[in-house]
Amino acid sequence: MTVFTGSDLTCLRGERLVFGNLAFSASTGDAVMLRGRNGAGKSSLLRLMAGLTSPRRGNIRWQEHDIADDRIAHRARLQYLGHQDAIKPVLSVRDNLRLWAELRGVSDIDGEIDQALRALDIHHLAHTAGRYLSSGQKRRTALSRILLGSSDLWLLDEPTVGLDRESCAELARLIASFRAKGGIVIYSTHIDLDVTSPTILDLDQFAIPMMEWLADQDDADETDTGDNHPFDIDQGKQTGATI
Ligand SMILES: Nc1ncnc2c1ncn2[C@@H]1O[C@H](COP(=O)(O)OP(=O)(O)OP(=O)(O)O)[C@@H](O)[C@H]1O
């Protein structure tokens, strides 16, 4: 059953048209790998999928409901791992996890933290303060957070950065186990992660020149009464803004 979809998505960041006319769909147990050159918009798309930002055009739906209609419900069903590990330097690994578990309303906090620490093989770091962790240990701590509580969707932005080979293999196992329980995983990576049969979404295919998009908008706006152009078209010409 198709659960998570996006259609006709256009993403603008600053004055940059990152991608346009992008669509995706994912069903229970699916993995989607985002691919594309640096700056193609993988992180931007993951942020849209998490409901942290809004598309300039198009919509993203969870079981037919636009995620923009209830962002709190959407946040509750997903775990998002961004570029930043978001580890509090003065708190121990365990207390960092406790903070996240409390925010997520986990009931068996200590039990779930123990499980997550074991899954990422960082139990021995439980009492180490965040500021003393190596970058790989920070990434493993951040990854252990996504195991806390229940979720239906993992959005992972370059989850392998800083991880050694064993941790990458462990992450691949965690992804497989999450999918086996019906979870959907969408991730970006520049290195091979051993994920079984992911759908590939290549963002390079959705890059469109800014001027082409503005002309397209102009046609669409001819029937509009209001002026909701994001940019003045002459300004676009002056700056020659293209992808
Ligand atoms: N906060 C921001 N404000 C304005 N533009 C931004 C911002 N963050 C990113 N961008 C721009 O958006 C575009 C897409 O960036 P994004 O980080 O989504 O790409 P990416 O595919 O994840 O890149 P990478 O592979 O390098 O991580 C880039 O051109 C970037 O310069």
Describe this structure as you would to a colleague.
- The protein is built from eight helices and nine strands.
- It has 243 residues and is of the alpha/beta class.
- The protein has a single domain, classed as 3-Layer(aba) Sandwich (Rossmann fold).
- 36% of the residues are buried.
- The C terminus is likely disordered.
Concise description?
Residues 219-243 are annotated as: Disordered. The chain is of the alpha/beta class.
How big is the Rg?
A: 20 Å
- Helix-residue proportion: 25-40%
Q: CATH architecture, please?
A: 3-Layer(aba) Sandwich
Listing every helix as H and every strand as E from the N terminus to the C terminus, the arrangement reads EEEHEEHEHHHEHEEHH
Compute the number of helices: 8
Q: Could you give the distance between the termini?
A: 35 Å
Instruction: Give average pLDDT, whole number.
Output: 87
Low-confidence stretches: 224-243
Strands of the widest sheet, in order across it, are 6-7-8-3-9
What is the percentage of strand-forming residues?
Answer: 15-25%
Give the C-level CATH assignment. Answer: Alpha Beta
Looking at this protein, list some descriptive labels.
alpha/beta; 5-stranded parallel β-sheet; Rossmann fold; single chain
Secondary structure elements and their pairing?
Blueprint: E1 2-13, E2 16-27, E3 31-35, H1 42-49, E4 57-62, E5 65-66, H2 71-77, E6 78-81, H3 93-103, H4 109-119, H5 135-145, E7 153-157, H6 165-180, E8 184-188, E9 199-202, H7 210-221, H8 233-239
Parallel strand pairs: 3-8, 3-9, 6-7, 7-8
Antiparallel strand pairs: 1-2, 1-4, 4-5
Helix pairs in contact: 3-4
Bound molecules: adenosine-5'-triphosphate.
